[in-house]
Design brief:
- The complex is a heterotrimer of chains A (about 250), B (about 140) and C (about 400).
- Chain A has one domain (about 10-245): 2-Layer Sandwich (Alpha-Beta Plaits), CATH 3.30.70.
- Helix content of chain A is about 15%, strand content about 15%.
- Chain A has six helices and nine strands, in the order βαββαββαββααβαβ.
- Chain A is globular.
- The relative contact order of chain A is 0.23.
- Chain B is mostly helical and about 140 residues long.
- Chain C has a domain at about 10-235 and about 355-385: Formate dehydrogenase/DMSO reductase fold (Up-down Bundle), CATH 1.20.1630.
- Chain C has helices spanning about 15-40, 55-70, 70-75, 90-110, 115-120, 130-150, 160-180, 195-220, 230-260, 265-270, 275-295, 305-330, 360-380, and strands spanning about 5, 340-345, 385.
- In chain C, strands 1-3 form a two-stranded antiparallel ribbon.
- In chain C, α4 (about 90-110) packs antiparallel against α6.
- The longest helix of chain C has about 30 residues, at about 230-260.
- Classes of the chains: A alpha+beta (about 250), B mainly alpha (about 140), C mainly alpha (about 400).
- β2 (about 90-100) of chain A pairs antiparallel with β2 (about 340-345) of chain C, so a sheet runs across the interface.
Chain lengths: ~250, ~140, ~400
């Protein structure tokens, strides 16, 4: 059953942050759009390259004591962990940095960068690691044989391997022993025109350091911010053209 | 070469081993013909919610894995999320509730998936990853 | 004219003893693999930081050695050296057996070994791993045909051509295996074009060492000794191969040392890496290169026992080399933020921990056990082992 009316003619896709504050957010606050997205797709249409989902991390707004994004991701996907941090899965983590020369300290979240030329996709022997047409890099866990070569290949150490039997998985986040996984940009939410859990949580926590949107849509706030303010990708020398960009590094 | 040797063996040097094989096969065949092996209980499982399944029963029995397999490729690779052949859709209707009103996993003993699969002796791999219970907020039938 | 005669190994107490040992080691490996698969990989020392551990060290060692084990046969068929012919059949058998052992370890360590059929039917041809699957299976076929050419007198005239095909295939296979690491842009320790040729020379070294060791073992079971002239030649070859490996290792490290950006990695491996530094200098270089080179090449150490010691040291050094390469390369953190000190909950910015577990060691050794077992079965069934050569003019 469809969750909403899917006829394209009347498709009015509105991005809301689920801020319980309910304040009318008419300004260009991150994560909020009161603009129709004429190019939005229905649930029974395939994802297409017309859209390219991206994320902008504003490092200046990211607070070093806060891990709202990490908790939200863990809750959303059922990443309970087994108190074994070396083998427990982490799809997003907070990284604390200190400049070796100046002593300046910063904090930022790090997750799968959803590269346009992902090394993990190149090396996967079965093609389980793949890039969807709209830019989200995923693992098809039906085909994954658990060789972990993609984990070796990822320049960002973004992937996790599931080291034990799991129970009580979330319906929208199937995961099981012996396969590899990583941040999916909350693809199940994005396909319902919602925001990724980390973006919502960051806004709810009042930091608004994460902006999600469609890089290809010039009217999208993410695209406008990327066009106006400098940002860069991690390990830019590898020329992977990541969808996740950082501002303030 | 081998066959002519066997035939020669049969006609000229009938051995005890050969007779043992013949009698055993004959006994088994005879017993089989009486239908002694025919009585295996059919799988029993709780009935599903809703009026009817998304496909006719005989089509589902034959092809449900094909539907699931193609649907999963469409969903994972292309993001097509129609519920008609989705595993989540199956579980929504076919999951039973226990006496306390909580959902029972569909791969638990005596439940929908498990009972037929135990009968047919086909191991399924779905629930090492997929949730075997619907989310508590059950979606509407199509 | 020299004619080599071959025989199969007859049943003896020594044969059953070695078979029992190899069988027990293989069984231990299977038990280890079963434990890993049942409980999940958390029971091993491997983690999200060090994703390939001791099983992969053994698997890569065995696969690389398998390619090199064919070298003796190649010298006979491709380079026309008839004096190596007596060992050609055994060399080809060893190649197949070692590859079986290596692949078994690799497959049993997979997160989903039950999905082997998926791996054989779904291919991403940009992946060097996918190509390697073809190269490994194809290698077994080609060496099988090569053996057929060698065994069947009517096909002997094709041995050279198939030998050339097998030789070429072997070089491509070893290049592919080295490129598994060489193609990884993400990791400083691997991303290098020298990986492919390094692996080729490693294969020559590891393969010749194992050919000598397992070959001498089989001769001992059969109550015979290998032709001393041939052993002497293989001995010198091994000495040069060991030096060849050291040369490429030196080039690899010296190049990285020249680049300022890689200084921290080199400092870790060569100076401050604790276990890894010890394994590099103490085991790989000293025990695995310098000592064997001396024992193999200097005439003063011509006795048989020095050869056995040298070959064993080469194997130990080989395992240390692969360990430092694969595991040392993973424990060193990725550099995502140059100029910053990094901490996180996901072990960014720190040297990762890795302690091999018993299950992993058992699985790795099980691969070696399987290789020896396959060889023993082979030499019993078919005439692989040469008897003393008939005719004059022994070189």
């Amino acid at each position: 059953m469809d969750m909403k009316d899917s006829s394209p003619a009347s498709a009015r896709r509105i991005f809301f942050s689920q801020a319980s504050a309910g304040v009318a957010l008419l300004a260009l606050a991150p994560g909020v759009r009161l603009v129709d997205l004429a190019l939005a797709r229905a649930q029974d249409e395939p994802a297409s390259a017309t859209q390219r989902w991206g994320l902008l991390v504003d490092v200046d707004r990211c607070s070093s004591g806060c891990d709202a994004c990490v908790s939200a991701c863990d809750t959303e996907h059922g990443l309970d962990g087994n108190e074994r941090p070396q083998t427990d899965a982490q799809w997003i983590r907070k990284v604390d940095l200190e400049d070796e020369n100046t002593g300046r300290q910063l904090s930022l979240p790090l997750m799968c960068q959803h590269c346009e030329e992902p090394p993990c996709v190149d090396v996967c022997p079965t093609g389980a690691s793949f890039r969807r047409a709209d830019g989200i890099v995923l693992v098809d866990k039906h085909t994954c044989i658990g060789c972990r070569y993609c984990m070796m290949a990822c320049p960002y150490k973004a992937r996790s391997f599931i080291h034990e039997d799991l129970t009580g998985q979330k319906t929208h986040a199937p995961r099981g022993k012996g396969t590899v996984e990583s941040c999916t940009l909350c693809v199940h939410r994005v396909d319902r025109d919602e925001l990724p859990a980390c973006v919502e949580a960051c806004t709810d926590a009042g930091h608004e350091a994460l902006v999600f949107g469609d890089i290809n849509d010039r009217n999208d706030p993410l695209a406008t911010q990327l066009a106006e303010v400098p940002s860069h990708e991690l390990r830019a020398d590898l020329k992977l053209n990541t969808a996740v960009r950082y501002r303030g590094l | 070469m081998i066959w002519s040797g066997l035939i020669e063996h049969w006609f000229k040097r009938r051995s005890r081993a050969m007779w043992t094989v013949v009698i055993t096969v004959g006994l088994l065949g005879g017993v089989g013909l009486t239908g002694a092996f025919a009585e295996v209980s059919q799988p029993l499982f709780p009935s599903a919610r809703g009026e009817q399944c998304v496909e006719p029963v005989d089509v589902m029995r034959r092809d449900h894995f094909e539907f699931l397999k193609h649907q999963r490729d469409k969903t994972v690779h292309k993001g097509i999320r129609t519920p008609r052949h989705s595993l989540v859709g199956c579980i929504d209707c076919h999951a039973d509730k226990d006496t306390q009103g909580r959902f029972v996993p569909v791969n638990a003993k005596g439940q929908f998936c498990q009972s037929c699969h135990a009968y047919a002796a086909v191991k399924i791999d779905c629930f090492s990853c997929h949730a075997a219970r619907p989310t508590e907020r059950v979606s509407q039938s199509p | 004219m020299k004619i080599a005669y071959f025989q199969s190994v007859s049943s003896s107490r020594g044969y059953w003893l070695i078979s029992a040992i190899a069988g027990a080691v293989t069984l231990a490996g299977l038990i280890g693999a079963h434990h890993m698969e049942n409980a999940g990989h958390w029971v091993t020392g491997m983690s999200n930081q060090v994703v390939w551990g001791v099983p992969h060290v053994f698997a890569i060692f065995l696969i690389v050695a398998a390619s090199g084990a064919l070298n003796t046969a190649s010298i006979a068929s491709v380079f026309g050296r008839d004096d190596y012919k007596p060992l050609a059949r055994l060399s080809a058998l060893l190649a197949i057996a070692l590859l079986c052992g290596g692949l078994a370890v690799l497959v049993l360590d997979l997160g989903r070994p039950d999905r082997l059929i998926v791996a054989m039917t779904h291919y991403n041809f940009k992946s060097i791993f996918a190509w390697n699957i073809f190269l490994y299976i194809g290698f077994m076929f080609i060496v099988g045909i090569y053996l057929w050419m060698m065994f069947e007198p009517r096909m002997n005239r094709f041995t050279a051509q198939v030998g050339i095909a097998a030789f070429t295939w072997r070089l491509v296979l070893t290049t592919g295996t080295g490129s598994i690491f060489g193609f990884l842009v993400a990791r400083e320790a691997f991303d290098s074009a020298v990986m492919a040729p390094l692996f080729v020379v490693m294969s020559l070294s590891f393969g010749t060492a194992l050919t000598l060791l397992i070959g001498m073992l089989i001769f001992w079971i059969n109550g015979a000794t290998m032709d001393p002239a041939l052993v002497q030649k293989l001995r010198r070859l091994l000495g040069f191969f060991v030096i060849g490996v050291a040369y490429l290792v030196a080039v690899d490290h010296l190049t990285r040392l020249y680049v300022t950006g890689h200084h921290q990695l080199e400092q870790f491996i060569l100076l401050e890496g604790g276990t890894y530094t010890f394994l590099f200098w103490g085991v790989q270089i000293l025990l695995g290169t310098v000592v064997p080179a001396i024992l193999l090449l200097l005439p003063r150490f011509g006795q048989h026992r020095y050869l056995i010691a040298a070959a064993l040291l080469v194997v130990v050094g080989a395992l240390a080399q692969v360990y430092v390469l694969i595991i040392g390369g993973q424990v060193f953190p990725l550099e995502l933020f140059p100029g910053y000190a990094v901490t996180s909950t996901f072990y960014d910015g720190v040297i990762a921990d890795y302690t091999p577990s018993l299950a992993e060691l058992a699985l790795g050794m099980g691969g070696l056990g399987l290789a020896v077992l396959v060889t023993l079965i082979g030499v019993r069934i078919l005439p692989f082992v040469p008897v003393q050569m008939v005719g004059e003019n022994q070189d």
